[in-house]
């Protein structure tokens, strides 16, 4: 019995029972399809997040005050250690590094913002002129904060579209005076709302000079300092420089934490890859269920075709040949099912893309391969039991049934 | 060619033992035409299944062409069936989804005969049974007599030495039954050993040797016309 004859025989068997074939096809294609759809979504989400972060620039280093570390004896741990403040002077000192292109000190707080009778509570960011270029924002009207020393206050502010809308309505905000906390600021610019920015809703923002923010919030420490190195290769050197400069200024203590954009990206990459694998696993459960259905249907097939099996034995088919023929049927059904599932999955993701234009939904190649392999393997594995049952049938009893 | 020595077949039914064949001794020469008759439950079919290696004796020996076949493995027995034995059944046992041609071809596919030769042999045998214009018909499009002729073609396509027929006319009308018997006799006249199990005395007496089974024992074994 050669391969061609086996295939012809199984194709005949598969096509002669349409309902059964259709049923198994649906089960398999749901399984394979769900793996593809779920992994596409996972990968789409991962790409989306990575793209957002990459838009920020990959040569970004973030300096946070404080450092998680264990030092000293156990007793000391009870009291904890207060980190030294990260000040605007630290920020200024970082400028000395030749690897650093620009920096933006950041102070964050929430304050009441009011214009005439209108007032709202919202996030206020204190920063410097370079924040605009570091975060790749654009202005829709007016100007961003002017370059100036970090320790100088100035009564100017830049606002986002939502803040503008809430406070000014259709009025032109430029040149108007706002009250933030107990101080007055003149609006000098409006940030364009298209600007992409991870973790910050640009539209809700109010940005004022860093020294003014620290005065309003009465906080001597910066929230963080964003440092942009001159290019990506200089990131490691810039980190060393920043660490050295801060250490020198903080009496030899390493009490800041440095995060690179790459590390953040890497972490998100890992999280989303894990997520994709998880959903792929969930999809694989439906493949497993499809496998069980295949087994069930094949068992029914074996009992329906008992007479045929008896006949095959009578005309000299070996156990192995019967096993191959029945397993071939299960394999063929799962193969067709898997192909249909891939088509189904791609159809669904392509349709979804129309409604989610920001996401690219393409199943990763490994998901396609894994879904195919799992589908066919489960098909064959779950085909073994029915095929062996067929091969072991007693020919006399098998033939006595009509 | 065939020798049964004290062949015994005992079935276990619940906790009762039923003896289907009770120490049967039988020897059959090549080219014989034998009918096996007897009341139901006398062991006719068991004897036929035993001769066709579909059933295993619980005691005794079965020599086919001088070789003890009772000790063969399942696959060796399958090979022996394929090469030496043909079966014809009361209910034809054609595979319903395959055409007449494909049904006849099946034993050759299992035996691994090349496609070219398979086609030639199938065409020849279809011509011999007068159904060459029914080659593409499926079993549900054929009459009982035609089905049995296809089944006989399938049973003989591997040129076996023995043809075992279990009530070959049991499911046919008088006329088709007669045609089938004539076809089988024609094959026998060309040297094929023919063993027919039947209820029908008219068919049984046409054979050259008549074996009567009662309660798993051969009660009569006569040659010549009845």
Task: Give an overview of the whole structure.
The complex is a heterodimer of chains A (402) and B (226). Chain A has two domains: 3-52 and 266-400, no CATH class; 102-229, no CATH class. In chain A, helix 2 crosses helix 11 (319-355). Chain A has helices spanning 3-16, 18-55, 74-79, 88-94, 131-134, 161-168, 210-217, 235-249, 261-304, 306-314, 319-355, 365-392, 395-400; strands at 60-65, 100-115, 118-127, 139-142, 156-159, 177-180, 183-191, 206-209, 224-229, 256-260. With 402 residues, chain A is an alpha+beta fold. Chain A has a six-stranded mixed β-barrel with strand order 2-3-8-5-7-6. Chain A is elongated, with a radius of gyration of 33 Å. Chain A contains 13 helices and ten strands. The model of chain A is unreliable at 74-80 (pLDDT under 50). In chain A, strand 6 and strand 7 (183-191) form a beta hairpin. In chain B, the strands form two sheets. In chain B, strands 6-7-8-3-9-10 form a six-stranded mixed beta sheet, with helices on both faces. Chain B has a domain at 2-95 and 160-223: P-loop containing nucleotide triphosphate hydrolases (Rossmann fold, 3-Layer(aba) Sandwich). The mean pLDDT of chain B is 92. Chain B is globular, with a radius of gyration of 18 Å. Chain B has helices at residues 44-51, 74-84, 100-111, 115-128, 144-156, 174-189, 201-204, and strands at residues 2-13, 16-28, 33-37, 59-64, 67-68, 85-88, 162-166, 193-197, 209-214, 217-223. In chain B, strand 1 and strand 2 form a beta hairpin. The relative contact order of chain B is 0.20. Chain B has 226 residues and is of the alpha/beta class. Chain B contains seven helices and ten strands.
TL;DR of this structure?
By secondary structure, chain A is α+β, with helices and mostly antiparallel strands.
Please give a handful of descriptors for the protein shown:
heterodimer, A: alpha+beta, 2 domains, 56% helix, 17% strand, B: 226 residues, Rossmann fold, six-stranded mixed sheet, four-stranded antiparallel sheet, 7 helices, 29% strand, globular
């Amino acid at each position: 019995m050669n391969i061609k004859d086996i295939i012809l025989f199984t194709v005949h068997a598969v096509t002669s029972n349409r309902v059964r074939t259709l049923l198994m096809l649906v089960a398999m294609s749901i399984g394979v399809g769900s793996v593809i759809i779920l992994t596409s979504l996972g990968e789409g989400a991962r790409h989306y997040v990575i793209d957002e972060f990459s838009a920020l620039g990959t040569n970004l280093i973030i300096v946070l005050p404080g450092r998680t570390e264990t030092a000293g004896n156990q007793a000391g741990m009870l009291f904890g250690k207060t980190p030294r403040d990260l000040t605007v002077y630290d920020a200024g000192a970082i400028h000395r590094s030749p690897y650093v292109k620009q920096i933006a000190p950041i102070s964050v707080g929430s304050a009441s913002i009011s214009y005439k009778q209108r007032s709202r509570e919202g996030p206020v960011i204190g920063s410097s002129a370079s924040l605009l270029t570091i975060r790749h924002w654009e202005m829709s009207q007016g100007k961003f904060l002017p370059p100036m020393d970090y320790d100088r206050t100035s009564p100017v502010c830049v606002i986002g579209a939502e803040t503008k809308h809430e406070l000014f309505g259709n009025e032109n905000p430029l040149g108007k005076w706002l009250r933030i906390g107990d101080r007055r600021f003149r609006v000098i610019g409006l940030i364009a709302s298209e600007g992409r920015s991870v973790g910050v809703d640009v539209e809700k923002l109010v940005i004022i000079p860093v020294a003014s923010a620290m005065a309003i919030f009465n906080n001597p420490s910066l929230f963080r300092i964003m440092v942009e190195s001159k290019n990506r290769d200089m990131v490691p050197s810039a980190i060393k420089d920043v660490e050295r400069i801060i250490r020198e200024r903080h009496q030899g203590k390493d009490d800041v934490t440095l995060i690179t954009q790459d590390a953040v990206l890497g972490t998100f990459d890992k999280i989303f890859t894990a997520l994709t694998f998880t959903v792929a696993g969930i999809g694989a459960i439906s493949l497993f269920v499809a496998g069980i259905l295949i087994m069930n249907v094949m068992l029914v097939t074996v009992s329906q075709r008992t007479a045929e099996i008896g006949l095959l034995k009578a005309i000299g088919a070996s156990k192995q040949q019967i096993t191959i023929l029945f397993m071939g049927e299960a394999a063929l059904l799962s193969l067709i099912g898997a192909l249909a599932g891939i088509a189904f999955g791609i159809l669904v993701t392509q349709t979804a893309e129309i409604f989610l234009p920001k996401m690219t939904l393409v199943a990763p190649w490994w998901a396609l391969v894994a879904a195919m392999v799992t589908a066919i393997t489960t098909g064959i594995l779950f085909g073994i039991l029915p095929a062996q049952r067929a091969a072991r049938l007693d020919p006399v009893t098998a033939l006595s049934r009509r | 060619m065939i020798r049964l020595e004290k062949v015994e077949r005992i079935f276990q039914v619940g906790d009762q033992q039923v003896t289907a064949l009770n120490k049967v001794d039988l020897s059959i020469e090549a080219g014989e035409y034998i009918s096996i008759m007897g009341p139901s439950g006398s062991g006719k079919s068991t004897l036929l299944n035993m001769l066709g290696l579909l059933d295993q004796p619980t005691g005794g020996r079965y020599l086919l062409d001088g070789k003890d076949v009772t000790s063969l493995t399942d696959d060796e027995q399958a090979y022996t069936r394929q090469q030496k034995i043909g079966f014809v059944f009361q209910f034809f046992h054609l595979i319903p989804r395959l055409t007449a041609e494909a049904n006849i071809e099946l034993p050759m596919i299992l035996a691994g005969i090349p496609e070219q030769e398979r086609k030639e042999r199938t065409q020849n045998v279809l011509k011999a049974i007068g159904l060459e214009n029914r080659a593409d018909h499926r079993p549900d499009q054929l009459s009982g007599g035609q089905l049995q002729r296809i089944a006989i073609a399938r049973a003989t396509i591997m040129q076996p030495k023995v043809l075992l027929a279990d009530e070959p006319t049991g499911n046919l009308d008088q006329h088709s039954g007669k045609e089938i018997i004539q076809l089988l006799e024609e094959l026998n006249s060309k040297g094929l050993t023919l063993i027919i199990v039947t209820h029908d005395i008219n068919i049984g007496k046409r054979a050259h040797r008549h074996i009567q089974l009662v309660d798993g024992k051969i009660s009569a074994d006569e040659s010549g016309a009845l």
